[in-house]
Write a structure and sequence with these properties.
This protein has a two-stranded antiparallel ribbon. It has 22 helices and two strands. By secondary structure, the protein is mostly helical.
Length: about 450
């Protein structure tokens, strides 16, 4: 018995099977940190598309199942012995990304869910191609550009959160004091736990905020559990249940976001390895990770899962705890997989009132925007850099808020450029970064020159 314990791997080692008693709480920590973020995009988009309860359950199920499978492929790459491998082979957790929410809302409102999944297949192909040439095109997407895009994504989501806090614009009691009260109670719990607690409570701040908000909402009679009662105990995802539609304007919008998120994934891969493994990721790891990201999003579109991406909050857990054992993270993925196969669990998630989701997610959207600021400010807030960021965001947000100014153009122009600020901000940031002259290095001071002469 003691010999068996000695042979167990350390949770701080990449390979090997650690003790289950140590692995389980660490795996649950990852699940708690990401599960709300994983299912919320599906809930938001389902609301815009006016899906019925059964379809909402399917969308949430697919989000959990595909996120789990994608994570497992990143942890346990396929074909590693043949030179190229599908998957990064790094300690990362994958989940449905908020980066696509604003664009998906616009597409769902205009064309329906089928157009989202058709565009996602095109986006997955774009990511796959970028993965194979990542070392050649990284120069086009420095932190200045990716940070501008991430910042724009964050601020583009603020109206969604505020509308949800008010109860959802389509609800009969939109803007009622009950909705605002529940939303602010939820937000207060999240903020307090984030800043005044440690360990599990801090990591689970959003989940705990939703639990408290849910209980308060139930006291106001806002919770309807009929979706749970009518859901079954087991159900596999359905292939192409929502259909596929390759609407050109939607494809362009989502493809641009996939290109940006492919580059953004490099940041998460790098943060993971440098923060927990004291090294940079290899080109082979980056290539395998991004190609897997593309391939799994194509498969995810067929199964009805919105676009996935690396989860920065889980990267933060890995770099903080230094727990990189892939069986620990794999156990977290298996928990997600089991949860996704149980419709009653997914049905329960659909009963969360919109005001609770709004109060919980507005802090997430704020952190996305601040991540963008950190990225572009890392290159210095010079006159050139602030011009690029300022103009890109101004044009992106400005055109979206004045989308009626595009009425004279074909309808696809409004869909691509007028529905979300992300597309315009991305294009402007890339072009300005390529066109504007680079900042000159600071000239040496006379004292420095004199010392060199000596």
């Amino acid at each position: 018995m003691e010999q068996t314990k000695k042979n167990k791997a350390s949770i701080f080692e990449w390979n090997g099977l650690p003790e289950f008693g140590k692995a389980l709480p660490l795996a649950l920590q990852h699940v708690v940190a990401m599960i709300v973020g994983c299912v919320t995009p599906a809930i938001i988009v389902a609301g815009v598309a006016n899906l019925d309860t059964s379809d909402r359950v399917l969308l949430i199920q697919a989000s959990l199942i595909v996120s789990a499978i994608t994570t497992l492929i990143q942890l346990f790459p396929i074909g590693k012995k043949k030179g190229f491998h599908l998957g990064a082979g790094l300690p990362v957790i994958m989940g449905v990304s908020f980066a696509y929410v604003a664009s998906m809302q616009a597409i769902a409102a205009d064309f329906g869910m089928a157009a989202i999944f058709g565009a996602q297949i095109i986006g997955g192909i774009v990511a796959l191609l970028i993965g194979f040439v990542i070392d050649k095109i990284r120069v086009v997407f420095p932190p200045l550009v990716t940070g501008t895009v991430v910042f724009t994504i964050g601020i583009s989501l603020y109206p969604t959160a505020v509308n949800y806090m008010a109860g959802g614009s389509s609800s009969a009691d939109y803007g009622s004091w009950q909705n605002w009260l529940v939303a602010f109670i939820t937000l207060a719990v999240v903020v307090l736990l984030n800043h005044f607690s440690k360990g599990f409570l801090k990591l689970a701040s959003i989940l705990m905020g939703i639990v408290v908000g849910y209980i308060v909402a139930a006291c106001f009679g806002m919770v309807d559990l009929s979706a749970v009662a009518t859901s079954s105990f087991f159900q596999a995802p359905r292939v192409v249940h929502f259909g596929l539609q390759f609407e050109p304007s939607a494809c362009v919008t989502i493809a641009l976001l996939f290109a940006i998120n492919s580059i953004q994934a490099i940041g998460d891969f790098t943060a993971t390895t440098s923060g927990s493994m004291d090294r940079e990721p290899s080109n082979q790891e980056l290539k395998g990770g991004i190609v897997a990201y593309g391939v799994m999003n194509i498969i995810g579109a067929l199964l009805g899962c919105p676009p996935t991406a690396t989860y920065s909050q889980n990267v933060g857990i890995v770099t903080t705890t230094k727990v990189i054992n892939r069986f620990v993270l794999g156990l977290a993925a298996l928990i997600l997989l089991v949860a996704g196969l149980v419709p009653k669990f997914s049905g329960l998630l659909t009963t969360i009132p919109q005001c609770v989701l709004g109060g919980a997610t507005i802090s997430v959207f704020a952190s996305i925007a601040m991540t963008g600021i950190k990225l572009f400010s890392s290159q210095g807030l010079t006159f050139r850099n602030t011009s690029i960021v300022g103009l890109a965001v101004a044009l992106g947000v400005g055109v979206t808020q004045a989308s009626a100014s595009l009425a004279m153009f074909p309808a696809w122009v409004t869909t691509v450029f007028g529905k979300t600020p992300v597309v315009v901000a991305t294009i402007v940031a890339i072009l300005l970064n390529l066109i504007l002259p680079k900042d000159k290095p600071a000239e040496e001071t006379p004292k420095a020159e004199e010392s060199k002469a000596e």
